[in-house]
């Protein structure tokens, strides 16, 4: 015997919101893990530049590797970052930017990929200057200008830009 029913409730779909229940928790944990890994990789970069890239010879690197294990972070990411630093070192580049109202910026940066940095720079100048960015050109250091003040901006590009500004007056 076949019974036909008509139902307006979603009783058959109960339990299918498991992902909705754990999505917020997983997202929060992933964000914390990513932040911890970024801090560890910054320390790794500084330690590698001071003492070399070999984990067996550099005590700071071996301590950071143990710290990575203790926090349950990926050792593959740690090792891949070391090989990237070793194989493709960062280069210094200088950019001249004519911004809104004819303002002039000389930006000195250290990056591993010049084109990606230039595109990011262009994106944020256009975003903040309402599309008034005129030119970005690469140049040597300017001999025409006297450095009266020094503004240092440390930018970490992961998923978002978080600048920390320090202004020093000579």
From TrEMBL:
InterPro entries: Integrase-like_N, TACO1_YebC-like_2nd/3rd_dom, TACO1_YebC_N, Transcrip_reg_TACO1-like, Transcrip_reg_TACO1-like_dom3, YebC-like. Residues 92-132 form the TACO1/YebC-like second and third domain. Residues 17-86 form the TACO1/YebC-like N-terminal domain. Belongs to the TACO1 family. This is Uncharacterized protein. It comes from Necator americanus. It comes from the Eukaryota. GO terms for cellular component: mitochondrion.
């Amino acid at each position: 015997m076949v019974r036909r029913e008509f139902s307006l409730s979603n009783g058959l779909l109960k339990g299918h919101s498991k992902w909705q229940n754990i999505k917020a928790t997983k997202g929060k944990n992933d964000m914390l893990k990513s932040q911890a890994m970024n801090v560890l990789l910054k320390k790794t970069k500084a330690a590698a530049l001071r003492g070399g890239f070999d984990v067996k010879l550099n005590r700071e690197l071996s301590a950071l590797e143990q710290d990575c294990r203790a926090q349950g972070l990926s050792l593959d990411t740690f090792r891949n970052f070391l090989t990237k630093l070793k194989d493709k070192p960062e280069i210094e580049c200088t950019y001249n930017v004519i911004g809104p109202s004819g303002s002039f910026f000389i930006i000195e940066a250290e990056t591993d990929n010049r084109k990606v940095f230039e595109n990011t720079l262009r994106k944020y100048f256009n975003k903040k200057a309402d599309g008034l960015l005129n030119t970005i050109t690469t140049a040597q250091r300017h001999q025409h200008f006297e450095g009266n003040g020094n503004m240092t901006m440390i930018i970490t590009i992961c998923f978002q830009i978080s600048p920390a500004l320090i202004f020093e007056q000579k």
